[in-house]
UniProtKB/TrEMBL annotation:
This is Binding-protein-dependent transport system inner membrane protein. Belongs to the binding-protein-dependent transport system permease family. The chain crosses the membrane at residues 6-26, 70-91, 103-126, 153-178, 199-218, 262-281. It is a multi-pass membrane protein. InterPro entries: MetI-like, MetI-like_sf. Keywords: Cell membrane, Membrane, Transmembrane, Transmembrane helix, Transport. It is found in: Cell membrane. PROSITE patterns: ABC_TM1.
Length: 289
């Protein structure tokens, strides 16, 4: 039977999804309701109901890490979308096919770079002694800055690296939306008004909103679980200046060895991600529909 054959071909994918997606989620949910401290396994893992969740919600450090993550998201994501939209509009308007092809290939390079490598590149760029950032600043008369030792500059440094890596993603998604706009409609709109802002808002915006929704969902989820680049670049420091929520959860789970508390925090982070995704779909995607 063709149907049964297709089912057998799906079994490896189902097992893989269960092994790397469903099982860790269920294990984290189970641990979140238990006292599970790796440094005190002799005491067992008793069931403690919602104590881990209550302790998490009353933990100032958790709210501090979540606040830093929210600030990072609210500042960095709009910049990435704005720069990506600008790049997409420029590529959409160009009449040189070879330039568009080269730009598309160039935009893929930052996205293809792994998070850990981006963090290492950031450490080199913002190094006080031999970093490119201080060299460029010296060309305009700015004194050398200890970027990764100053709380504000370290936060800005992480922002810059994230913007460098993921603005191309926004540009490619928005460029795909712009290519869906009928050329006849664009030509008529340009004859009607020379103002690009009116064309963008009244003609191109509906075609951009589905892609914008995908960008908001994917990038928000990435920023909420952002760990590799930050940990490689700053280790969450100086102090707690770049200790985002994922870095804080890692510290609780693998430095304080409290797996129960870390699991509860991870589940709350998952709930927050789902809520944000639903809000994006409700207020952005529905407008496009």
């Amino acid at each position: 039977m063709p149907g049964s054959a297709a089912f057998w071909f799906l079994i490896p994918a189902i097992f893989t999804l269960a092994a790397i997606g469903i099982y860790p989620l269920l294990l984290a949910l189970y641990n979140s309701f238990h006292q599970y401290k790796l440094a005190d396994l002799a005491s067992g893992t008793p069931f403690i109901w919602f104590d881990n969740y209550i302790a998490t919600l009353s933990d100032p450090s958790f709210w501090g890490a979540l606040g830093r993550t929210a600030l990072f998201l609210c500042v960095t994501l709009p910049i990435e979308v704005a720069l990506g939209l600008f790049a997409a509009l420029m590529l959409h308007r160009t009449t040189l096919p070879w330039m568009r092809a080269i730009a598309r290939v160039s935009l893929v390079i930052p996205m293809a770079t792994t998070y850990a490598v981006v963090g290492l590149i950031g450490r080199l760029i913002f190094n006080r002694q031999f970093g490119v950032a201080n060299y460029i600043g010296g060309l305009v008369g700015m004194p050398p800055q200890d970027w990764l030792a100053d709380p504000t500059l370290a936060f800005v440094s992480v922002m810059i690296m994230d913007i460098w890596q993921w603005t191309p993603f926004c540009a490619l998604i928005l460029l795909a939306g712009l290519t869906m706009v009928p050329k006849e409609a664009e030509e008529a709109a340009r004859l009607e008004t020379p103002r690009w802002s009116k064309i963008l808002w009244h003609l191109q915006r509906p075609y951009l909103l589905p892609g914008l929704t995908a960008i908001l969902i994917l990038r928000s989820a990435d920023m909420l679980k952002m760990f590799d680049a930050v940990f490689t670049m700053t280790r969450g420091g100086p102090g707690t200046a770049t200790e985002f929520i994922s870095v804080y959860i890692q510290r609780v789970g693998f430095r304080l060895f409290d797996q129960g508390m870390a699991s509860a925090q991870a589940i709350l982070l998952l709930i927050l991600t789902i809520v944000l995704s639903r809000l994006y779909i409700r207020f952005v995607y529905r407008e496009a529909a």
